[in-house]
Amino acid sequence: xxxxxVDHVLALLPFEPQAHERLGGPDCTYVGHPLVxxxxxxxxxxxAELLSRLNIKPTDVVLTVLxxxxxxxIKRLMEPFGRTVSIIKERGHDLSVLIPVIKxxxxxxxxxxxxxxxxxxxxxSEDDKFRAFKASxxxxxxxxxxxxxxxxxxxxxxxxxxxxxxxxxxxxxxxVQSVVLANLVLGENVFPEYLQEKCIPEHMADAIESLLTExxxxxxxxxxxxxxxxxxxxDKESPSQHAARIIQRYAKKN
Length: 254
What we know:
The protein is an alpha/beta fold. It has 12 helices and 8 strands.
């Protein structure tokens, strides 16, 4: 239905042009995700500086927890995420937990972490968010763009999500094998996802624990994380340049 009204779709993800072609949509070109343009900046950030500033011991296992930026996401995920962290601690892991937050959601997150057995450190700076990714042995994240941020930072991850009951009943409409963007880029489900009734702390703790030591599961994720930047990159131009060139071509036609 888009085709009569849209000249060209500029896709952010590499699997989108094939989907448009399969569904009979308008012409579609993968121009690249804006995050690709920030990789040099990501690579320049020093995670050791963050750990030193936060007085995190070198022996601690750093886990970044990302419950989302929407209030509804935070309210649904903070309790199971907190219990997951507690289980990992109970199993003998010395954890330092970092939670990147946006200022508007800080007070909401602070209310939830009052009941956590490990008191996380909240980080508001975007620089510190990406330092935390690089410093972390693993991340527990809400599904969303953050899975691409983690992937481009090279951080192993476990992903979860919960929606309201009405939206949950519409799951039969989903035609993709995963809701995790990093999995969709790869074309295989490497990063485990726990959705709705499967968002169980014990199961998520099992998945995270398998990433904390040198296991085959961790090795598989590391290999996949090395592929994703290559799959999302363009050889000759940035996403902005590629998009601008296509827009310019259509502007000249008119």
